[in-house]
Amino acid sequence: MKVTDLTTIFLADGEKNIREALSLILAHRADFVVVGEASTTESLLAQVCQNPPEAILLDWSLPGFHPQRLLTALRQCCPETIIMVTSVQPEQENLAVKFGFDGFLLKQLLPDEFLDSLKTAIHVNSNPLRK
Questions:
Q1: In angstroms, rounded to a whole number, what is the distance separating the alpha carbons of residues 101 and 84?
Q2: Which CATH superfamily is domain 7-124 in?
Q3: Where do the structural domains in the chain lie, given as residue ranges?
Q4: pLDDT digit string, tens, across residues 25-64
C-alpha cells in the first residue's frame, strides 16, 4: 500500500458522538481525510468493500463486532487497508494484537497524542519491508 500525502480514514464506531469527535480531531491534521463512517459491522463491510480506505479506525465495541470474523472479511475485501482498533480499555490491546489487527489506539489519548500514534502506526504498517 502506498500512503499518499492525504491518508483516507474510515471511522467505525457505534457511538455517533465518538465518530464526530474523531472526525473533528482528524480534521485538524491536513494529512488525514475521513471518507466514511459506520455504526455497525454490516454497514462497515458494505461501505469499505466498495471503496477501500487506506486505514480503518474500528471500535472494539462496534455492534456486531466479532474480531476474527470481521478481520477475515476485511482482509478479503480490502487487503491493503490498515485496520486499527480503538477502545477505552487498555487491556484490549493484547487481544487486538493476538487477532492480528494492525494497531491499537486508546480513545482517551489527548488529540495530539492520538494523531501522532495514528500517523506512526500508519507509517509502520505502510512500510513494504514489514509485509
A1: 6
A2: Response regulator (3.40.50.2300)
A3: 7-124
A4: 998 877 899 999 999 999 999 999 999 999 999 999 999 8
